[in-house]
Structures are given as structure tokens and as C-alpha cells.
């Protein structure tokens, strides 16, 4: 289960009020350690803020501190708000990508990845 899914389970079903404003790059997020089985290097932490969680999927803000972790992805599209990282694709094998503010990426459910974050990475994601 992804860190994003765990956050949604902890938060329950939530929706950002219509017309409400969230300062994505600056909103405070509460970090938790990455589970030991996912941590590869350093002591990475992640944080999650749901903006919309419904039967149709999730929209939220996710952040990872410096360090390296492995993950199993969900179907999502995300936009990087801040940070510097590399994502390696283990399965299926693909060329690694470098993330920077403005990067837009699509991931498929089941992809096995390794995230190496050099500067805290914050993204807005849409999962369906």
C-alpha cells in the first residue's frame, strides 16, 4: 500500500471546500518515518495532505524528505511543486527520471520504483 493510500485511510473521506485556497508549496505537513522495509538510504520521512478523497480517487499533496525509499505505485499523475529527486523504475525497467519543480509524471499501478530525494520533494497528485 502506498504512503498516499495509508494517509487516506487515516484521514477518512475528505473534500476541499469549493473555492477554498491551499498554498500547496507552503502548507504545513506532518511527517512520519518511512517504514523500514521501504527505506533504502538515510532516514526518509513522508507527509500527506488529502485535498479530495472520494470513490472516484484522490487528490492530495505528498512530500518526502531527503533520503532514498522504494515504493509500489498506484495509478496517478503528479506535478512537482518543489524539490529535487530521481525516480528509478525497477519493474517495469525504464530509464530513470529527474524531478524538479514543474515536472509532470504519470505512474501506473504496480510499478516498482526507487525514489532518491536530494532536496525535499513536494508534489500535487491525482490518483484514480
From TrEMBL:
Pfam families: Cupin_3 (PF05899). Residues 1-14 have a biased composition (Low complexity). Residues 1-26 are annotated as: Disordered. InterPro entries: RmlC-like_jellyroll, RmlC_Cupin_sf, UGlyAH_Cupin_dom. Residues 58-125 form the (S)-ureidoglycine aminohydrolase cupin domain. It comes from the Bacteria. Transmembrane segments: none annotated. This is Cupin domain-containing protein.
Amino acid at each position: 500500500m502506498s504512503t498516499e493510500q495509508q494517509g487516506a485511510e487515516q484521514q477518512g473521506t475528505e473534500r476541499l471546500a469549493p473555492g477554498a485556497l491551499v498554498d500547496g508549496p507552503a502548507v504545513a505537513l506532518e511527517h512520519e518515518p518511512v517504514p523500514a522495509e521501504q527505506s533504502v538510504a538515510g532516514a526518509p520521512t513522508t507527509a500527506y495532505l488529502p485535498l479530495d478523497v472520494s470513490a472516484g480517487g484522490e487528490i492530495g499533496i505528498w512530500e518526502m524528505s531527503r533520503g532514498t525509499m522504494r515504493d509500489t505505485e498506484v495509478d496517478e499523475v503528479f506535478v512537482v511543486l518543489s524539490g529535487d529527486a530521481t525516480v528509478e523504475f525497477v519493474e517495469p525497467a525504464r530509464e530513470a527520471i529527474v524531478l524538479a519543480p514543474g515536472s509532470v509524471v504519470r505512474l501506473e499501478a504496480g510499478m516498482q520504483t526507487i525514489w532518491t530525494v536530494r532536496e525535499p520533494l513536494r508534489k500535487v497528485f491525482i490518483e484514480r
